[in-house]
Amino acid sequence: MDVSFYFNFFLLTQVADLETLGQGGEEMGGLCRPLQASMVWLAVLLLLLVETVNTAQEFDPYRVLGLTKSASQAEVKKVYKRLVREWHPDKNNDPGAEDMFIKITKSYEILGNVERRANYDRYGQMEENKQDQHQQGFNRHFHNSFYFDESFFNFPRSGRDFSDSKYLLDHAGFNSKVLPDSFKRPYLIKITSEWCFACVHIEPVWRETVQELEPLGVGIGIVDIGYERRLANQLGVHRTPSILGVVNGRVTVFHYSVVREHLRQFVEDLLPPRLVEKVTDKNYVSFLGSWHVENNPSVLLFDQVPAVPLLYKLTAFAFKDYVRFGYVDQGLTETSRLLHQFNINSYAPTMLLFKENTEQPADIIQAKGMKRQIMEEFVSNNKYLCVPRLVNQRLFDELCPVKQFHRRRKYCVLLITGEEPGFVPGNQAFLTFASSNTKDVLRFTYVYQRQQQPLCQALLHNQAPLFAQVVILERRSPGGKAVYRSVIGGWNGSDDDKTRLHEQLELLQRDPSYLSYDATLPELNNELAPMFLIQWINAAYDYFLQIYDDLLFSNWREMMPILSLVFSALFILFGTVIIQAFSDSGEEKPPQKPKNPPNTDDSPGRANTSSRPPKKDFVEVTELTNITYISNLVKLRPGHINVVVVLTDASKNALLRKYAKEVFSFSGTQTLHFSFLNADKHSQWMPSLLESCPTAARALAHGEEEEEEGGGGREGDEHSSSSPFSGRPRDFTGHVLALNGHKKYFCLFRPVFTGDTDTGGESSSSSSSSFDEGSRRKSRSRSRSQSSSRSRSREEGGSSGRGGRGGGRASRATSLEVHHKLDRLGLWMERLMEGTLPRHSVPGWPGLDTTSPSSSPAPQN
């Protein structure tokens, strides 16, 4: 005998004493009635406490199922099924069968879930189980001990009984079953808990709604918030009772009064608005003829009800990816011609299914009471066209499945055709052939070559056929492995083509090894995929609709995380702006450093003129080759300029050093790129560029004529009547171009020295030196002071040493001349950054020559 027996006996004696005291109290004028009521309530509370402790010690799910803690999940499930069949109240007449059945169900809810079982084994009795057992134990023991009816304290039991157990949802089941299935049918879910008094009041309406909507195809679920806290948090519901709707993975809360009509309307509102189209005499031709674009059959339901039946909407939602649905109201005068054309009986609902032939339905069904199973079977058997077009990988997997060992072979007869009008007769002939050769092992399909180029290239070996092709294939593995064979001669729909295809199909059924070629098929393009912008708009619409519902119904608990995130982002944004504003106003600008006078001729005289300091201590200079030409010039980003210096193999080292020093102060600008072009490798590029831009050629020729006249005029007389670019080879060493690849223009820098650099021998040394003397004088008059001083010293040193080593002195002088070609490049770069240089436009950039043409011979005197 346990403690509760003695405690119950004690309470019974106290209640008996209180009744005697109450009877005596009546004789005393009712003075003891308050004391009697207080003692009764105290006894009830004490009994509640004792039963809580007692039931917590009594309930053990392992003992209820007769298992040990080492039992596996398979054993738990097996024992649960056996006990449920044994103790089901409909099959067991034992008075305690219902209580035992509830115990078995609760035990399986704990042990059948791996997470709950681990928590129970680790921590013992869980709080929700304690609460449930406490409520059940209190109700059972209190009723058995005192024989009180449930209406004694007006405390009704929860509306959930053993019949609701099949609708119970847990977190894993909701995410693995309900959410994926919600894309095919809507779900109506009730949130409840034990001893929920308001849940009892809506229970009759809930039962009637379930009995009405479940046969139509609506999914039903019940979530016990006391057991499934995690699932309740995921659904965003924290109070009972609540009713939710789930469709397409989206959860919607029901906010109106719980009436059957409101719940039915709530389910209809969950469905997409344009599932079923109203069809009349005016639009039925376009509705049935849209199979070309939609690539789906069409179903018409004829009925006398003005509104579309909910059963038909639910069927349309289940097959929305396969079939188009239309509804014809027989009571309207606008549908009389449609009823007469298809000879519709107005006494019973009728469904017509159309495929490629819009004049004659492919299937028909008529029944007085249209049931859900009949509708779904009717649509499921006709959810593909006779010759459907492969528009995505899902349809390809369904029509041409992978070969299974335990199933019959299935072959896919694929027509590779085009969308042009010239292919229409052949496509129609292929449809006629497929309609007359319907077999379970054959599936006729077609693709547009322009839409599915990877698939067509894999089957046709990268060939572009001028006419349609027929390919018979069988898929062997999900990875894309397939065997196939093309029908010789192509396909134009003639009788010979039909005979040839029929013979090969017959041969294939007799000898499966007829498909002798294998290939790896790529995944098909999804032709029906919406654009990213449309997906983004739909997601934004759903998001704002959810926010509107939360604001409308004051669901502040779910809104708090979103509002907190928004206000935090705004606070950070404005805080950053304010801090930046104060820091900018209070920041003192650093004093500008005075320009140091240059010490040497080689240092860049305008190193501090750039507004942005260089990020590196060197300049990256890239050579223009056939590999880098496209990226560094032709496809240069808008707003970017490539500064290119032209040089030769002999002058490469000297010019690159001088070029790097002159442009170093501008290397911090991100829109400037620096390159060099080897004229020995690509000698025809500069002439081609100048020929495409006459203004630049004239400016260059005019400058050279001025220099030649200043240098002595001997060669100006010789070439005064001819073009400056004809009759003699060009030397563009030291020229610099600022190329804008996007806008197709360039700015030209002409070097300081433009004389010959021939150091061939003693015979030409005198003329060369005389020309160099004039060039040096011209250079000294136009270069900077430090450059002129160094040039003068070099000239003096070179002239004082003329003698037996004239060739070496001429070589050193030539090196110095090449070095000074870029003396004024820094000033030119400043004008480039200011935008004051003349721009020469070209129609297009010439290509680089991989080989240099042979140099032309010198003109004969």
Write up what this structure looks like:
A hairpin with a 4-residue loop joins strand 18 and strand 19. The chain contains 31 helices and 20 strands. The strands form four sheets. The protein has a six-stranded mixed β-sheet, with helices on one face. Strands 5-7-6-8-9 form a five-stranded mixed β-sheet. It has a five-stranded mixed β-sheet with strand order 11-10-12-13-14, sandwiched between helices. Helix content is 46%, strand content 12%. The protein has six domains: 3-146, DnaJ domain (Helix Hairpins, Orthogonal Bundle); 162-270, 3-Layer(aba) Sandwich (Glutaredoxin), CATH 3.40.30.10; 276-380, 3-Layer(aba) Sandwich (Glutaredoxin); 393-520, Glutaredoxin (3-Layer(aba) Sandwich); 532-572, no CATH class; 621-714 and 729-796 and 807-841, no CATH class. The termini are far apart. It is extended, with a radius of gyration of 46 Å. It is α/β, with parallel strands linked by helices. It comes from Hucho hucho.
